[in-house]
Amino acid sequence: MSLKPLSDRVVVKPAAAEQKTASGIIIPDSAKEKPLKGEVVAVGPGTKDEVMQVSVGDVVLFGKYAGTEIELDGEKLLIMRQSDILAKF
Description:
Blueprint: E1 9-14, E2 37-43, E3 59-62, E4 68-72, E5 75-81, E6 85-88
Antiparallel strand pairs: 1-2, 1-5, 2-3, 3-6, 4-5
């Protein structure tokens, strides 16, 4: 990845939105919710006060309005602070 986040920032590739419900009902694009889970694709070096606790490849949960959406090479990504991440798998 050519994108290198600075400071305590993390680049996350959001998981795909659900296409259908558990009972098999297909969800239209207008009703899909923004995914709250994704894979870390790049991590900044951290700061002197904050050590980075996530690494590339971790699957993380984040808040509904966390991060800034960008598009790089036709791929939608989120850049957020490590503090916006709620948990990792």
